[in-house]
Task: structure prediction
Amino acid sequence: VALADTAPGIPRLGAYVEATLAMAADGRHAIANALRDVPLSPTRRDDLMTLHDAAMGPLAAVLAELGVDSPHTTALVHGLLSAGMDLVGHGGEPGRVSDDVIRMLTHGLAG
Result:
């Protein structure tokens, strides 16, 4: 599902989470994890960070639609997504992990 084809707000956030965790499930995020510990020159590491920041653009846009403008909150959301990707990468069922991440993002721990 393309984000542009999804209603703004919570539905679009859910679509982003589902797409991100689906990429983790099919291994498309594995290269990022593999490169994390590779000794790269500062220039190459900067290039990778530029690519990563571009990939995070849609998340920032979705959060902005929801009125989230704090870099700290964005970092926390990214951290929750990263934890979800780790769970999926270690065999967690992507649909269940997506549901849990979306629930935590929309309702917190008590939801």
Observations:
- The two ends are 26 Å apart (CA to CA).
